[in-house]
């Protein structure tokens, strides 16, 4: 009855392959940060490495600062400044800003009407954007998101992967309103 033992071995192998393998795996958060989902049900953020920064060297980064906010009745205008400390031109970068209310829900996601463009190393550009339908006092946090279709260094609008453009931008915390990536 060798055929019976062969069938038993094949059945055991099939069952072993059918059992789902559980292992940790990585995903990208909406803000581009990498997260490890562990097979025990927990998760943690991964620290960015030079590889994650897609070629950026530590200390070489663009720096985004929230300069001011201005109440505009039922609206709020923000001014931001980008300094290009990268060793190459930022041809185009369009960050989006998620606007949060006190309940932790995103009210809206907006962009500046003009992108950051043609920024040679060392250049500084200022941009403004307005959030309508909500006062400055109602805004409890701004989060820089998106910007994945940048043209800077070897990155361009066809580059795969979320967060590679913003990984090269440091967002400076602000006293005006919490400002982060």
Mean pLDDT: 80
Q: Separation of termini?
A: 66 Å
Query: What string, H for helix and E for strand, traces the elements in order?
Result: HEEEEEEEEEEEEEE
Major β-sheet strand ordering: 10-5-4-13
Strand content: 35-45%
Shape, principal axes of CA atoms: globular
Share of residues in helices: under 10%
Largest sheet: 4 strands, mixed
Radius of gyration, whole Å = 23 Å
Multimeric organization: single chain
Contiguous runs where pLDDT drops below 50 for at least 5 residues: 48-58
Number of strands: 14
Count up the helices. 1
In short:
Helix content is 9%, strand content 40%.
Please give a structural write-up.
The protein is mainly beta. The protein has a domain at 62-180: Immunoglobulin-like. 9% of the residues lie in helices and 40% in strands. The protein contains 1 helix and 14 strands, in the order αββββββββββββββ. The chain has one helix spanning 2-18; strands at 25-28, 34-37, 43-45, 62-71, 75-84, 90-93, 95-100, 106-111, 116-119, 124-132, 141-146, 151-152, 169-171, 179-180. The strands form 4 sheets. Strands 10-5-4-13 form a 4-stranded mixed β-sheet, with no helix packed on it. Strands 8-7-11-14 form a 4-stranded mixed β-sheet, with no helix packed on it. It has a 3-stranded antiparallel β-sheet with strand order 1-2-3, with no helix packed on it. It is globular and about 45 Å long.
């Amino acid at each position: 009855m060798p055929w019976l033992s062969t069938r038993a071995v094949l059945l055991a192998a099939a069952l072993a392959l059918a059992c789902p393998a559980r292992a940790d795996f990585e995903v990208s958060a909406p803000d581009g940060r990498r997260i490890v989902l562990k097979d025990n049900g927990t998760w943690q953020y991964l620290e960015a490495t030079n590889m994650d920064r897609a070629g950026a060297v530590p200390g070489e980064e663009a720096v985004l600062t929230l300069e001011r906010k201005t109440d505009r009745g039922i609206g709020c205008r923000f001014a931001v400044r980008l300094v290009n400390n990268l060793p190459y031109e930022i041809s185009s970068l369009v960050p989006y800003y998620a606007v949060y209310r006190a309940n932790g829900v995103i009210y809206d996601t907006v962009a500046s009407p003009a992108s950051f463009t043609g920024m040679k190393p060392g250049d500084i550009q200022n941009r403004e954007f307005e959030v309508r339908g909500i006062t400055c006092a109602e805004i409890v946090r701004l989060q820089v998101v998106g910007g994945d279709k940048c043209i800077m260094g070897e990155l361009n609008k066809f580059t795969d992967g979320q967060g590679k453009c913003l990984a090269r931008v440091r967002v400076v915390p602000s006293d005006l309103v919490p400002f982060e990536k």
